[in-house]
Design a protein that fits this description.
The chain is globular, with a radius of gyration of 20 Å. The chain has 343 residues and is an alpha+beta fold. It folds into three domains: 60 residues, Uridine Diphospho-n-acetylenolpyruvylglucosamine Reductase, domain 2 (2-Layer Sandwich); 113 residues, Uridine Diphospho-n-acetylenolpyruvylglucosamine Reductase, domain 3, CATH 3.30.465.10; 105 residues, UDP-N-acetylenolpyruvoylglucosamine reductase, C-terminal domain (Uridine Diphospho-n-acetylenolpyruvylglucosamine Reductase, domain 1), CATH 3.90.78.10. Strands 5-6-11-9-10 form a five-stranded antiparallel β-sheet, with no helix packed on it. The protein has a four-stranded antiparallel β-sheet with strand order 12-19-18-17. A three-stranded parallel β-sheet has the order 1-4-2, covered by helices on one side.
């Protein structure tokens, strides 16, 4: 297969592209973008391929962001301003924060992918979103070939969303990410499953304990990408109004796990909805839902993007048909050629 991408996407889909390269500086990025102009599609920039659904063939160059490094910009008795290269591994950075006693990101441990991918999805877990700690992003504009800074407000963060996923999708390359972290612990212990784990294991309420608890919980509930192809959470947990939630409870006798947000809307858990409908026992074209967590779509065969998306559509239609709740795919679905290209 021409320039196979199977080892470069954690879902392990059959995929390939015209050309592969990487960059570790703005100058190298500009060179690669210049070279990529000979192909029919714009260059696709990836981190570690952990949150994408790749097509059978991408008719352009695929570039891997490998801008590295962590630097302290300033610090006070209470806070530290840290800038991190977009190519750094996210979990390794969170782990580094624990060693340095920089606090705030411990709930986001063990999320696969790069630092640069974190703002795109506005990653979140156990009651914390990365946007709570991010203060700005250094970006490269592909249209103007200029670098500039975007404040957290300008990043347009929403629930699992940002300007990088919406209005500026494909137009900006994240180079570095700035965080303002605490030097004095301020625990975020509000999520039911995390509270329960800490209590059951009689853990001290410290940032390191929260970090270790999150790592343990995710280790029990999530498959390792080295062992089973997956892209993490495949669907965004749906958020509905209190009225919709009350109607759902009235219609069904089961207890729906939920989380009430500050604005009084209710977050449901997509994995539970799929589990209630029996989808964890179904396998099609190598795709199935993980036995320990139905929110994780796994792949252990030779499947393609089109087969993956067809399975996902079956899941979405089922949940909508029974519960009246819509599920949104969380990973970015990359447009390309759906049928394999022979080379």
């Amino acid at each position: 297969m021409k320039n196979s991408l199977r080892a470069h996407n954690t879902l392990r889909l059959q995929s390939s592209c015209e050309s592969l390269d990487s960059f570790d500086s703005v100058e190298r990025l500009q060179q690669c973008l210049q070279w990529s102009q000979r192909f029919s599609a714009e260059a696709l920039v990836l981190g570690y391929g952990s949150n994408v659904v790749l097509p059978a063939f991408y008719p352009g160059m695929v570039l891997f962001n490998r801008i590295m490094g962590t630097e302290v910009i300033s610090e006070t008795d209470d806070h530290v301003h840290v800038v991190v290269g977009a190519g750094e591994n996210w979990h390794a950075f969170v782990e580094q924060c624990m060693h340095q006693q920089w606090y705030g990101l411990e709930n986001l441990a063990s999320i696969p992918g790069s630092v640069g991918a974190a703002p795109v999805q506005n990653i979140g877990a156990y009651g914390v979103d990365v946007s709570q700690w991010l203060i700005q992003c250094e970006v490269f504009c592909r249209e103007t070939r200029q670098c500039y800074h975007l404040s957290a407000v300008e990043c347009g963060f929403g629930y699992r969303s940002s300007i990088f996923k919406q209005a500026k999708k494909g137009k900006l390359v994240i180079l570095r990410v700035h965080f303002l972290l605490n030097k004095r612990p301020q625990l975020q212990l509000t999520y039911p499953s995390l509270i329960r784990y800490v209590a059951e294991n009689r853990l001290p309420q410290t940032p390191l304990s929260i970090f270790n608890a999150v790592v343990a919980i995710r280790g029990m509930r999530l498959p390792r990408v080295e062992q089973i192809g997956n892209a993490g959470s495949f669907f965004v947990n749906p958020i509905i109004s209190q009225v919709q939630f009350d109607e759902l409870i009235a219609r069904f006798s089961c207890a729906f796990d939920h989380y009430v947000l500050p604005d009084k809307r209710v977050k449901l858990f997509a994995g539970q909805l799929l589990k209630l409908l029996g989808w964890q026992t179904v396998r099609r074209n190598g795709f199935s839902l993980y036995s320990k967590n139905a929110l994780i779509l796994t792949h252990d065969g030779e499947g393609s993007q089109s087969e993956c998306l067809q399975f996902a559509k079956n899941l979405q239609d089922s949940v909508r048909g029974v519960f009246g709740v819509s599920l949104t795919i969380e990973p970015e679905v990359i447009t390309g050629i759906t049928e394999p290209v022979s080379c």
